[in-house]
Write a structure and sequence with these properties.
Blueprint lengths: L1 H15 L11 E5 L2 E4 H17 L4 E3 H6 L6 H4 L2 E9 L1 H6 L5 E8 L2 E9 L4 E6 L3 E4 L2 E2 L13 E5 L5 H10 L5 E3 L5 H10 L4 E4 L4 H13 L3 E4 L16 E4 L2 H11 L3
Length: 265
């Protein structure tokens, strides 16, 4: 666990952090409409992927490598073990000079996330989680604080950008019963830890790219929370294309209450 945390922090220090608020002309590109990538993303992924393979020689499914070759995600179905890498989560924040970005990876065995790492460079905060062994922030055990029992006191995030308009409008209307709906932080590697820390009581995601959600889902569940599809199926990292809703919540009771509100009507 410590070695992987070192790999992320060292790659970040080498090629990511020096470019924060210092990206040169030509170092930011659009890999798909509305999707940015920078030289920091690509260089960090190359470094992290090489060093992870040296540590455990299994396939690496990295966000930027998949952008070039989508077939790489087949390893999630066909291989017994896979590394998932998101070299700069929250690239739009990184490009804009906002500090909410993270460097992440996770280890998937038999279709389940068994370990995860989130490094937040601008606060020098490390989050780790291991299946069955707990969640940790800078070496201290994380336990999710109790959430309010009343929906009117809950604070959540609704990530509805990729929903069809009619479904988005219904969800937004349903969410009026909650105490506060926060716009989110545009980085899963910052949002998931804030569920574990107690800032957010729930987050609803629609698009669930595996490198975005495997690390944080394990962190939240190992801290006592829940990360599951709306039918109650626990989260599993899947190839891109799975867009059927993922609800992350502070605890089982909050998950059930939030699902009831979101799916009403």
């Amino acid at each position: 666990m410590d070695k992987v945390a070192e790999i992320l922090a060292e790659a970040s220090a080498e090629v990511v952090e020096p470019r924060f608020r210092a990206l040169a002309a030509g170092e930011v590109m659009e890999k798909a409409p509305g999707e940015l990538v920078t030289v920091a993303d690509r260089e960090a992924e190359a470094i992290i992927s090489r060093r992870l393979r040296e540590l455990l020689p299994v396939p690496v499914v990295g966000e930027e490598a998949v952008a070039a070759d989508p077939s790489l995600t087949e390893a999630l179905r066909s291989e017994p073990a896979v590394w998932l890498v998101d070299p700069v989560d929250g690239t739009s924040n990184f490009v804009a000079g906002r500090p909410e970005y993270a460097v992440m990876c996770s280890l998937v065995r038999g279709g389940r996330t068994v370990a995860s790492w989130i490094w937040q460079p601008e606060t020098a905060t490390a989050y780790t989680a291991e299946l069955g062994s707990g969640a940790w922030r800078d070496g201290e055990r994380l336990t999710r604080p109790a959430a309010p029992a009343d929906a009117a006191e809950l604070t959540g995030v609704l990530k509805s950008r990729f929903l069809a308009p009619q479904h988005r409008h219904r969800l937004e209307a349903n969410c009026e019963v909650f105490g506060e709906i926060d716009p989110g932080l545009s980085a899963a590697g910052v949002e998931y830890p804030e569920v574990a820390n107690g800032r957010f009581d729930f987050i609803f995601y629609w698009r669930t790219l595996p490198w975005d959600h495997a690390p944080g889902s394990l962190l939240v569940t190992e801290a006592g929370g829940v990360s599951a599809r709306l039918d109650g199926t626990p989260y599993r990292p899947e190839a891109p294309g799975c867009e059927d809703g993922l609800l992350v919540a502070a605890d089982p009771a909050t998950w059930e209450l939030t699902r009831a509100v979101l799916t009403a009507g």
